[in-house]
């Protein structure tokens, strides 16, 4: 009996051993499955290092990244190796679609994407997200790391809906974005952008196209941008916002941000602080940029910037029409504690109430120099002017002109300025447009002036149909056109500022003004010649790479932002295929050029393409 008991115990122990072995096997299988689920071996290749980045080749790879927070950390590298069709995301997650890569739960619980993603010039098409009550929506929900980068990726025909911080590429961004684009429809409530909802970092060589809709801080490229530099970007999106800060490129920008060498072409509709380029520009600078879309709003509405506050706008222009109620300008609606220089507007301006100007609606404790407006101005209220609706106290205007017709239905209507308030100074300006006012306080140059200083300013008494003005001096067409009369343009600088120009109907024009670009080429995006340069920005050398579809005589030249030729790099017959040329930042005479935006233009086989480059010292 004892032997039988011992045999039974041995058998029992063997069974338990087999059970334990089976449990270990199941555990190991579970571990392996968990590892696979974490994505360590789930991508199409790579190990996540800089030398061997994870390869994103399929929608499954993209989904794996979106579901693997452990791979969102700093130091992880990804490269997209193929175009990805994300059409099936419309059926994911009970109709909510794709789960964004990286999220921001709260200040104590954050899982933002901090790695490096290189799209390698591939696309992700038909991405679908539908979370109207959720923040941080986009391919990347939230990103964080000033050394991280998202680059060379294109999103095509997205359909993305969220609440706050919504963008085609990124909802909330704190990483460098370079050479990226998004097309399609993006909708949200606040901080909504075609590419990025809320941007807190640098964006270069990127663009958006499609439709962007929201309530406030809505922009074609960026909804809101703070602490940032935006360079060489554009948007052709149509923008619609129901409240404040609505812009063709950026809804609003602040905290010493800069925008350079960028443009937008879409129409913009909003309520307050609405601009063809930026809705609200606060404590920031914009240079060498333009907008061409029509703008509609209520208050503080401009063809380029809605409200410019403690900010600078230079070397910029707008050509779209503007229609709003009050504080309406062809370039800027309301300009306060700010500077505008070397800018122009050409579109028509219509206002239903007051402060309506061809360039600026109201200028308050600010400076405007070397600017012009040429569009017609129509105001149903008071303070209507060809250049400014009102020039407020302690504000200065110098070396400016307006040529468009001005019509006011109330009072304070002038060919140049509707009203000049106490302490304002106007110097070396002229106007020639027809001026018409139903009531009173109308002038060929100034409608009404109260203790303002007006020096060496003129209006055409014949073309304006106004013999009087509340300041300035009236002249005939012969006196104001070339060759100018000795009593006209007294003390003006015709060497550095003004130019006697017969082609401008004989009236003087300003030197060094921005050139209107009618081509609207996409910046930084490969077209026929696949042209690009690297590095960009650069100092002082950059390599320009381009590809010719067929052999042909070819020229490749460099122009400054004003359209002046500075260097011809290529002028010879070339074979088809890829070519590279290096530019050292010098002109044809060998002179080192100043920092700024430059245009690289190639002509070959009857085709032309332009690419913008930034020389930054």
Q: Can you give a write-up of this model?
A:
With 617 residues, this protein is mainly beta. The protein has three helices and 67 strands. Strand 66 and strand 67 (607-615) form a beta hairpin. The longest helix is centred in the first third of the chain and has 37 residues, at 2-38. The chain is globular and about 80 Å long. The model is unreliable at 22-41 and 518-527 (pLDDT under 50).
List keywords for this structure.
12-stranded parallel β-sheet, 14-stranded parallel β-barrel, 617 residues, mainly beta
Tell me briefly what this model is:
The chain is mainly beta and 617 residues long. Helices cover 8% and strands 47% of the residues.
Number of E-type strands: 67
| Side-by-side strand order of the widest sheet | 9-12-16-20-25-30-35-40-36-31-26-21-17-13
What's the main sheet like? Answer: 14 strands, parallel, barrel
Q: Can you tell me the overall shape?
A: globular
Q: Could you report the average pLDDT, rounded to the nearest whole number?
A: 89
- Please give the radius of gyration in angstroms: 30 Å
Number of discrete helical segments: 3
Helix proportion of residues, in percent?
under 10%
Question: Which structural class matches the secondary elements?
Answer: mainly beta
Q: How is this fold's topology laid out?
A:
Layout: H1 2-38, E1 54-56, H2 59-66, E2 77-80, E3 84-85, E4 103-106, E5 109-111, E6 116-125, E7 128-130, E8 140-142, E9 149-161, E10 164-167, E11 170-173, E12 176-178, E13 181-187, E14 190-193, E15 196-199, E16 203-204, E17 207-214, E18 216-219, E19 222-226, E20 229-231, E21 234-235, E22 238-241, E23 244-247, E24 250-254, E25 258-260, E26 263-264, E27 268-269, E28 272-275, E29 278-282, E30 285-287, E31 290-291, E32 295-296, E33 299-302, E34 305-309, E35 312-314, E36 317-318, E37 322-324, E38 326-329, E39 332-336, E40 339-345, E41 349-351, E42 356-357, E43 360-364, E44 367-373, E45 377-379, E46 384-385, E47 388-391, E48 396-402, E49 406-408, E50 413-414, E51 417-420, E52 425-431, E53 435-437, E54 442-443, E55 446-449, E56 453-455, E57 458-460, E58 473-475, H3 477-480, E59 498-499, E60 509-510, E61 532-534, E62 542-548, E63 552-560, E64 565-574, E65 577-583, E66 596-604, E67 607-615
Parallel strand pairs: 1-2, 2-6, 3-6, 6-9, 7-9, 8-11, 9-12, 9-13, 10-14, 11-15, 12-16, 13-17, 14-18, 15-19, 16-20, 17-21, 17-22, 18-23, 19-24, 20-25, 21-26, 22-27, 23-28, 24-29, 25-30, 26-31, 27-32, 28-33, 29-34, 30-35, 31-36, 32-37, 33-38, 34-39, 35-40, 36-40, 37-41, 38-42, 39-43, 40-44, ...
Antiparallel strand pairs: 4-5, 59-60, 61-62, 62-65, 63-64, 63-66, 66-67
